[in-house]
Amino acid sequence: MSFAQEVIFANIDQLIRDRAKTHADKPILSYADEDGAFQSYTGADIERLTRAAAITYRRALPVKDVPFTVALVGVSSFEYYIAFFALQRMGLTSMFISPRLADQGYVHLLTATGCQIVIAAEPSMKTMERVRKTSGLPAMIIPLLDMKSHSDLGLEEEEIVPVPAVSKQEFIIHSGGTTGLPKPVRLSPSTWLAQAAAVAARMPRADTLTTLPLFHSFGLATLLRCLVNGTTLAILNANRPITASIISSSIECTFSRALVTVPYILKFFTEISGGVERLASLTQVIAAGSAIPNDLAEMLLAKKVRVYHLYGLTEAGALMEAWAPDFRWVTPLAHAAPFLKFEPVGEDGFHLVVMPGLSAKVYSNREDGSYATKDVFRPHPSEPGLWRFVARQDDIIVLMNGEKADPTPLEEAVSRNPHVRAAVVFGAERDSLGMIVIASDAAKAKMLKKQDILDSIAPDLDLGNSRVPGYARISREAVVIKDTGTPFPCTDKATVIKPRFLQTFAADIEDYYQKRARAHATNEAAEVPDDQVLSTVRHIVVTALNMSVADVDDEADLFALGMDSLQASNVRSSLVKNINLRSASATLATNVVFEQANIARLARHLLDLRQGLSTQQDAPEALAQALLAKYSHFSDSPSRIPSSLGAGTCTGTVTGGLLCVLLTGATGAVGAHLLRNLVINPTVSQIYCPVRAPDSSTARTRILSALEHARLLPLDPTIHLPKIVAVPCDFAALDLGLPASLVAQFSSTLTHIIHNAWSVNFNHSLRSFETHSLRSTHFLLNLAASSIRWPKPTVTFVSSIAAALCAEPADAIPEILHPWSTVAEMGYAQSKWVAEHMVAAAAEQARVPARVVRLGQVCGDTEWGVWNPAEAFPVTVQAACTIGALPVVESEYGDEEESWLPVDVAAKALAQVALAAEQNGARFHVLHVVNEARILWNAQFLTYLKKHGLEFEAVPQKEWVRRLEASEQDVQLNPPFKLLAFFKTRYASSSGASQPKFDTAQARKWAPCLKGGVDISQELVGKFLRYWTQEAWAKKPQDKLLRLHT
């Protein structure tokens, strides 16, 4: 029996309470921040947060006569998910409303459902205020609760008081406005939860990444399926664009094995190197919202991408699933089959009708209680019971991204123009809409040219666009003008016969999209010189955004400026039309605008294409040099660098000769130990700790929690703890979000800066480290450079041996700056290399005493053995508990040497280096904090594990990978499986490679604790194992799996 079938839930509150027990310490949701780093939330976290949110929202509602329906308007942020859960837990009906509707759409939904209250995200507040001003609805607008401050809600012990029910609780989701206005559809929580369990039972149990918003019915279904199934749902940041690169890196860092998206997004993967292969590596790719275009489907089938295409309707739930040999064909699900009727229509089509009796059917549009879907299918020529979607029976156009667009408002607005004989919108299964306009006799009589006609209908097109959602709007560039007298299919009453019209002009439509997709060498547009490409791109972008050039910086993020997918598509179209790429083979990717992200990169990309170069990914070395140039300028007024100490210069240290330290990264393993070393040092008076948090209380709580987790408490409450000053900050902000008064204070008080915070994600590209890591490094270096003290604060930057891992010295890698060729091929290492050179520039330009410390592999501490169980080495050991085996490394060197430095020793060494006086008269130093003593994996580590009672079979590395690949794919039951790709790479070759040695001569002079190295003894390995088995892995799901192997 599958997990999903064990319990049938009646409502969301019951489900969340259950997950708080079954997944108290296991993640069920994971949400990305704007830098792409994912924060995971356990079942207990979600229960606590939604309870606190429910209590807070309840206090904002009227005391009496609480409205039973509350709408949610906004993008699908983490706060949006929490608000939905909170409303459901209060017993209220929650209505999802897309933030992209036209104003009349909001009014219609609120009126039709009797909804008086809206919870709105900040970007939607102005829209809701405008709607209320013109219509009187909604009566109350409540801001979406900011969950960044959830730690201070102070409601963890309170219970939710349900709102008295006045009717049956529901979800309300709306259609895309296929009748001109969106249609509210009421859904039963119990029915949808039961459906989620049934669907989950038919699919592989895998952690999932979704790109769908919660107001999309399949987005809601995906959330419920994962919750019921007990798997983790990873959600992209709603404030960032969706690109293939973002999805790919998110899959890697969340270890998701399934992707839920729309066909439009799948197309992005065909345009990047290795994109389709990345999809093929997943257990499942679930496409929803629209049919997959045939050419894309054939490509996915050829690459063996495991696509699961589920056909369903908001009005009737899941109805059909994909046929395994070819997902383009679907077959009715067992529960739905008796209620599906296919009515003949046209020559070989069948209109699908859902008959009364299906529990998930909540809407009818026929007198007999059935629901006519208006979806037309055709049967498989040889396999009974298989159907393939053909078209819509009505005028509704289903775009490639699943959005349903009603063309009527646009066609009616433009058709009223006297110069128009007929206007028909097209775009089924495309990324955007277009329109064919047949010129009238009046246009011919006035001898109007096509451009004149286009100018004439522009106001009408604007009117039509104002009446449809943003995704359904049509730009002037998307209008195809046909001459007066062009024949087209119509009835005796001169009404356009649309299916035949679209067929008649199929070549024109295809030509329109081809021109959008490809830049031809014979482009009709004027040749734009290379030195004018940037200005041309700038003009196109600001025009699309309806902004002025002065308001848009060339490096400003276009998505952050408010550009939506339709505007991005129009910008791409204008680029193709106005900038000749001088090559028939040069093409702009569908999502090029969001992939390149800003005007400067977009212009550079176009110039690269002209030269036959590819810029699908940044050239790492060129980008590194560009970032270094950008962040290596430090201001230092000569008056602040006295030849002899004089007025305006602060000498010495803080009161009494004590030291004042700013330490970043205090909540990490190394940072917590480093903080304790500083706290107990009698020469240190204060340690300022910037921490990502909304306020000081939350920041301090995070710091103390890190110390507690590392077994570093208690500390003396009168001597030690007062030294710690928790500083809430935002590492993405230019000034870390610090108050100007505090920055000014630092200028005269700081004696040392230790920069230990860094985004640790080995899957991210170099560019993704700019905002949160490199920018903050530049701020801290400038903070030291602009200090009024003399000597200036000493800066210690905690780097990584990865920044020099590829150096090839005769003996050991020296403690110096190294060229680009020595850096490891991952964004994390590359970003450290850039930062090292930034630190060197600050030392040279602004006379900042600086040390770069390359830190090696850190392991558990010597006292307790606390070693992060999510790191690669502990996860490898965990395989003994899940598949009953550990790898024997096969190397030409006979065994593999590991250099592991206990975290407490590493922190002590960092503190000794950071606080040490200058040596050799030099201002800049590079030191290697690594362990000289090594441990052999096969001969020692595996032996020590067995001596401490860990039972496993030692097998050759390739056999171990084979067993892991064939084992349980549920990473909650089998955590090592999530690193399968890493292990395949690590153990792909039997030849092996010797671990590089790093010279530590200088480090040993500065940090005496490193002398002689630290023995990773049998006793210490026992401490690691005891921590993992008795605490980190205790009562984890893999215990169940282990029993299967014993």
UniProtKB/TrEMBL annotation:
InterPro entries: ACP-like_sf, Adenylate-forming_Reductase, AMP-binding_CS, AMP-dep_synth/lig_dom, ANL_N_sf, FAR_NAD-bd, NAD(P)-bd_dom_sf, PKS_PP-bd. GO terms for molecular function: phosphopantetheine binding. The keyword Phosphoprotein applies. It comes from the Eukaryota. Keywords: Phosphopantetheine, Phosphoprotein. The keyword Phosphoprotein applies. Belongs to the NRP synthetase family. This is Catalytic. It comes from Didymella rabiei (Chickpea ascochyta blight fungus).
